């Protein structure tokens, strides 16, 4: 079993890297599981969809993996999700690739640039049907080039997409994995609500802790599938 863990920044996955390093065998990157080996690699792509797409595509062209996991923090539109809660993204979309027309915003699909049901899209969304959820809430996400901290733009994107969370890499990760026919998961832990920007209301340390706790569980489950 070979697993690639992908994150925009190292700090989001550093606890897992440190934990696994202490449990590795002589060959760095290999963890024993039920007498069989699970190879685990880490890929830090940098922030944003462009960097993620390039780094992930290049890595997948050089080495084969059984599972690819995107792990990171996220902002939530949905106040029913708690700060620090870890969720599983099953649908994502490229939300701000589009055209402004006076007071309105239209996606490229809405303006007729592309078929919203041409693979890997379905109704303009990218979907994951991996079947592994670890008891986590499944959420819909949007991926943006700039996170929202302005009341007006927040309302536009909340009302238009009805998404639970936003990130800056998720849809790019989905796109590459779907095109490469990979088994994949996107785990996100809520660090803040999407509202007028006020970092005093954020809890990044809690989000990172809970994200890595759940990531460790997922790795163990996937490892046992190889036993």
Question: Can you summarize this structure?
Answer:
By secondary structure, the protein is an alpha/beta fold. The chain has one domain (2-225): 3-Layer(aba) Sandwich (Rossmann fold).
Topology, pairings included?
Layout: E1 2-7, H1 10-23, E2 30-33, E3 36-44, H2 49-62, E4 67-76, E5 86-94, E6 98-101, E7 104-107, E8 121-122, E9 125-127, E10 137-143, H3 151-161, E11 165-167, H4 170-179, E12 184-193, H5 204-225
Parallel strand pairs: 1-3, 1-4, 4-12, 5-10, 10-11
Antiparallel strand pairs: 2-3, 4-11, 5-9, 5-12, 6-7, 8-9
CATH superfamily: Nucleoside phosphorylase domain
Spell the H/E element sequence.
Answer: EHEEHEEEEEEEHEHEH
Mean pLDDT: 91
Low-pLDDT runs of 5+ residues are: 24-36
What is the makeup of the main sheet?
Answer: 5 strands, mixed, barrel
Number of strands: 12
Q: Overall 3D geometry? A: globular
Number of helices: 5
How many domains? 1
Based on secondary structure, the structural category is alpha/beta
What is the correct CATH architecture? 3-Layer(aba) Sandwich
CATH class placement: Alpha Beta
Helix fraction, binned, reads 25-40%
Residue fraction in strands: 25-35%
Amino-to-carboxy terminus distance: 9 Å
């Amino acid at each position: 079993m070979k697993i690639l863990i992908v994150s925009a920044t190292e700090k989001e996955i550093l606890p897992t890297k440190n934990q696994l390093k202490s449990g590795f065998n002589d060959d760095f990157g290999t963890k024993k599981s039920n007498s069989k080996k699970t190879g685990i690699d880490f890929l830090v792509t940098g922030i944003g969809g462009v960097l993620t797409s390039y780094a992930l595509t290049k890595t997948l062209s050089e080495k084969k993996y059984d599972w690819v996991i995107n792990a990171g923090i996220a902002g939530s539109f949905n106040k029913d999700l708690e700060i620090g809660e870890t969720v599983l993204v099953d649908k994502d979309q490229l939300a701000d690739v589009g055209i402004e027309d006076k007071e309105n915003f239209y996606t490229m699909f809405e303006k007729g640039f592309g078929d919203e049901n041409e693979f890997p899209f379905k109704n303009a969304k990218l979907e994951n049907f991996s079947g592994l959820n670890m008891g986590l809430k499944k959420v819909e996400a949007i991926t943006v080039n700039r996170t929202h901290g302005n009341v007006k733009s927040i309302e536009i994107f909340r009302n238009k997409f009805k998404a639970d969370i936003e990130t800056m890499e998720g849809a790019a990760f989905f796109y590459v994995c779907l095109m490469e026919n990979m088994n994949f998961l996107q785990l996100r832990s809520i660090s803040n609500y999407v509202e007028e920007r006020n970092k005093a209301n954020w809890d990044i340390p809690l989000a990172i802790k809970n994200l890595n706790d759940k990531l460790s569980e997922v790795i163990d489950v996937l490892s046992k599938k190889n036993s």
